[in-house]
Amino acid sequence: MMKIDKKLKRVFQIEIVETLSNIVEVGAENEQESLLKAQHMYRNEEVVLYPDDFIDTKFNIFE
């Protein structure tokens, strides 16, 4: 949503998205089980992403 302030300048909303990435090995019988295990490990903080895992930053503008 765009707003206009008292000086008639436009105000923009900018979304900043940082991407972190890490590859973990998960033993499982199939892909679905491995995804569920990885999600469980992440939610239980057995896998934690750190600033060293940084991959990319994107800036998105909302009008």
From TrEMBL:
InterPro entries reported for this sequence: DpnD/PcfM_C
A Pfam family hit: DpnD-PcfM
Q: Which residues form the DpnD/PcfM-like C-terminal domain?
A: 13-56
Query: Which superkingdom is the protein from?
Result: Bacteria
Please state what the protein is called.
DpnD/PcfM family protein
Q: What is the native source organism of this protein?
A: Psychrobacter glacincola
